[in-house]
Amino acid sequence: MALISATGAGARLRVRLTPRANTDALDGLAVDSAGEPYVAARVRAAPEDGRANAALEALLAAHVRARRGDVHVAKGQAGRVKLVEFVGIGAADLERRLALAPMQQKSAP
Questions:
Q1: What is the rounded end-to-end Cα distance, in angstroms, of the chain?
Q2: What is the pLDDT of residue 31?
Q3: Contact present, 21 and 80 (Cβ < 8 Å)
Q4: Which residues, other chains included, contact 41 with Cβ-Cβ below 8 Å and sequence gap of 6+?
Q5: Which positions of the chain have pLDDT values less than 50?
Q6: Which domains does the chain have, with CATH numbers?
Q7: DSSP class of residue 8?
Q8: Cβ density class 14-43: b for 16+ within 10 Å, e for less
């Protein structure tokens, strides 16, 4: 699975979310034990009633300068690894927008 994939409506991004963190942040790129890349993210919100997912959507929307309503968790609502869909943003554009902030390659634990 690719880090970013194109969809009919825009693009999807693979994210691993850590809820109940000290801050909301995108920590960088990582690779899971199967060799699949993802963006490591953390949010202060608890994983209750969709609050952590909503916080992730808001964090990503702000990071890539997208409208909040155009970013939503498409898969993995109850899991740590999620596919987040960006409506109206193509895969190449999403990759460019993600690269604007410093993100360092790291290995997953």
A1: 19
A2: 87
A3: no
A4: 15, 16, 17, 18, 25, 26, 27, 56, 59, 60
A5: 100-105
A6: 4-98 (3.30.1200.10)
A7: S
A8: bbbbebebeebbbeeebeeeeeeebbbbbb
Main-chain dihedrals φ then ψ at residue 69, nearest 5 degrees = -70, -10
Tokens 């909301």, residue located: 24
What's the pTM?
0.89
3-class secondary-structure state, position 93: helix
For Cα atoms 106, 107, 109, give the angle at the middle one, nearest 5 degrees. Answer: 130
Task: Kindly write down the DSSP assignment for every residue of 34-92, as one continuous string.
Answer: TS-EEEEEE-SS-SSTTHHHHHHHHHHHHHHT--GGGEEEEE-TTSSEEEEEEET--HH
Distance CA 95, CA 106 (A): 18
Distances (CA, A) of 53 to 43, 59, 105: 9, 10, 23
